[in-house]
Amino acid sequence: MQKKWREDPDKLTFIILSVEKEGALSTCPMVGDVNLFLKGHPSDEDFEAEVEIMIAESDYRRRGIALEALRLMLSYATGSPSAFMCPPLSQSVPPPPKPLPILPQSLVVRVSQDNRPSISLFEKLQFSVVRLVQVFDEVEMRFVGGGLSTYGE
């Protein structure tokens, strides 16, 4: 599965480790992952990159790990660190592989409408609710670059 994730051109997955002390990364616990699922080609009019994050280990939730991981992933994928309030990536980091960079306006999130913490997390990253999908009990959020959500207000 790891090989497929690494080689799949429609998916970008970063594993989230908790670095609690100095040492080899192999000794750090895996606490979650952050993903982009690319639907179509960036040149397509209806292209979108669906963002997902999971902090699987409950002891690591509510610590800001998800926000930091999303900022890094979205900055990397879009080449727009300032859009996500993230410091620029180091000059030593190679440029993203094609089809990146992705336009921030192509980013979409689908979240359970009852998952208020996730909705708030993405609002901090300048996503706003654009649609309620009642059949799936979820909201669709898109990057709007500073717009405010009216969901739940």
From TrEMBL:
GO terms for molecular function: N-acetyltransferase activity. Belongs to the acetyltransferase family. GNAT subfamily. Residues 3-127 form the N-acetyltransferase domain. Keywords: Acyltransferase, Transferase. This is N-acetyltransferase domain-containing protein. It holds the Pfam family Acetyltransf_3.
